[in-house]
Amino acid sequence: MWYFVGIMVPTNYVEKAKALMQKTARTTALIIVPLGAAVSAHATTVLPTSDFSCTYTSNGESGGCSGGATQLAASGGVEGVGLYTDGPIYLSTSSGSSTITLSTANYDLTGSLSGGTVLPVSWDFILGATVDPSWSLTFTIYNSGAAIGSFTTSGSGPAGTISGSGDLSGLIYGGIEGCCNDIELQVQLTTDGASSVDIPSGLTMNFVPPATSTVPEPATTGLLAAGLAWMGWRLRKVRRR
After folding, report:
1. Which of 35, 39, 76, 96 is most deeply buried (CB count within 10 A of its CB)?
2. Which residues is 61 bridged to in the sheet?
3. What is the pTM of this model?
4. β-strands 45-46, 78-85: how paired?
């Protein structure tokens, strides 16, 4: 007859607890790592600096002027644009008004803009004249030739550096997708009488990036709450053991 003799081995509860805590830590890490990966990164929308154009109309005549566009640092998921001239543009008219138009365009927008987006704008330019002129300024964004948002402001004398800011709000297009759209940014400055306009690169007409939102996304908040709740339940279970 065969006999099986059992040998009692003392249980090491300290080692058992350590092993359980290590297992819990590894499982918890699997919850936390995907949480970080789940935070959606906003794709950056890059407003165009290409195909810069500077033209003027004064005293019934039209001509070209030189200048450029610079990309502004990203904020709120958008890289803005600053427009400037390479020097003063002299306008002479005995009656009526003169207009300077600065623009950029891109047939393939990087990123997208949703309908209702608020796009801040700002202006800094030097207006020279022998008398205090009146002026008006319009910022417009186009999609495939159709204006989808604009901002207009105006003022009058004295001559000198003129600065300000506003909001180009409520883009009426449902969403500007990243492919095959003719996006154009345009600034028109109109003055009366004989004057000169200078927009140095240090001043510029700006389509400014919107401010970055600091409000957590709902999906991120929900995942964080779920992860914390699971960790609390797991720790309570460990303590009971």
Report:
1. 76
2. 58
3. 0.71
4. parallel
Helices (H) and strands (E) in the chain, counts: 2, 16
Amino acid at 198: D
Range 45-207: architecture per CATH: Sandwich (2.60)
DSSP letter (8 states) at residue 174: S
Cβ neighbour number for residue 2 with a 10 Å cutoff = 3
In Å, how far are 5, 6, 7, 226 from 1, measured between CA atoms? 13, 16, 19, 59
What is the average pLDDT score of the chain? 77
* 158: preceding bond cis by omega (within 30 degrees): yes
As a whole number of angstroms, the distance between CA 25 and CA 22 comes to 5
Question: Encoding tokens for residue 206?
Answer: 């700006």
Where does the pLDDT of residue 98 fall: very low under 50, low under 70, confident under 90, or very high at 90 and above? very high
Element (H, E) at 118: none
Q: How confident is the model at residue 4 (pLDDT cuts 50, 70, 90)?
A: very low
The residue behind tokens 């009971």 is: 240
